[in-house]
Amino acid sequence: MFTGIVQGIATVEEVTAVTGLSTLALRFPDDRVQGITIGASVAINGTCLTVTRQQDNVLYFDAMQETLKATTLGALSVGDRVNFERAARIGDEIGGHLLSGHVHTTADIVEIERPENNVTIWFSLPENWARYVFPKGYIAINGASLTIGEVTGTRFNVHLIPETLRATTFGKAEVGDRVNIEIDSQTQTIVDTLARLGYDRPASNTTNFGSASS
């Protein structure tokens, strides 16, 4: 399990691709690999991966075909930067919300607003996943636990403070970038349960209930 509090940024050192499998070599900050072991779980842009090898502060991960298909990891290349979070331990503070590290879908950045001292990023996601996105609700974007601001059809935004921009890859985000999305599990359960009872929410429902900060 993860908390959605990004612990830092790693850089892609090497990508080795064979049929149905990519091995990612990621360079971590020196102080973030202490106590890491082979087999440990680390969320890379919100995707739970297993450490297969370590060489100093470079960790190696294997991403299988299904992972490459369902996430943005298959598009990574040398020099790219990724958010990371090591698996939570019992007793850790949960500053965000509980995440599984299982990416549900991807979304595209369609607009970036830069008012003074913060940034608002608009995303567009597939219609069948928009039904789980509500203003003031939780969502994980590239592994970061964020609060949803406005929702309009299949588009939604998040408002990012300077610390979030500094600590994550969102500080360098650009229109057209694709990101990994993990829907809040409690929201998904509630929406699906109501749908089974006949109280379905249309996927294209349009709402706009103000904004929230993250």
From TrEMBL:
<keyword id="KW-0686">Riboflavin biosynthesis</keyword>
<feature type="repeat" description="Lumazine-binding">
    <location>
        <begin position="1"/>
        <end position="97"/>
    </location>
</feature>
<feature type="domain" description="Lumazine-binding">
    <location>
        <begin position="98"/>
        <end position="194"/>
    </location>
</feature>
<dbReference type="InterPro" id="IPR023366">
    <property type="entry name" value="ATP_synth_asu-like_sf"/>
</dbReference>
<dbReference type="InterPro" id="IPR001783">
    <property type="entry name" value="Lumazine-bd"/>
</dbReference>
<keyword id="KW-0808">Transferase</keyword>
<dbReference type="GO" id="GO:0004746">
    <property type="term" value="F:riboflavin synthase activity"/>
</dbReference>
<dbReference type="GO" id="GO:0009231">
    <property type="term" value="P:riboflavin biosynthetic process"/>
</dbReference>
<feature type="domain" description="Lumazine-binding">
    <location>
        <begin position="1"/>
        <end position="97"/>
    </location>
</feature>
<dbReference type="InterPro" id="IPR017938">
    <property type="entry name" value="Riboflavin_synthase-like_b-brl"/>
</dbReference>
<dbReference type="Pfam" id="PF00677">
    <property type="entry name" value="Lum_binding"/>
</dbReference>
<protein>
    <recommendedName>
        <fullName>Riboflavin synthase</fullName>
        <ecNumber>2.5.1.9</ecNumber>
    </recommendedName>
</protein>
<dbReference type="InterPro" id="IPR026017">
    <property type="entry name" value="Lumazine-bd_dom"/>
</dbReference>
<comment type="function">
    <text>Catalyzes the dismutation of two molecules of 6,7-dimethyl-8-ribityllumazine, resulting in the formation of riboflavin and 5-amino-6-(D-ribitylamino)uracil.</text>
</comment>
<feature type="repeat" description="Lumazine-binding">
    <location>
        <begin position="98"/>
        <end position="194"/>
    </location>
</feature>
<keyword id="KW-0677">Repeat</keyword>
<comment type="pathway">
    <text>Cofactor biosynthesis; riboflavin biosynthesis; riboflavin from 2-hydroxy-3-oxobutyl phosphate and 5-amino-6-(D-ribitylamino)uracil: step 2/2.</text>
</comment>
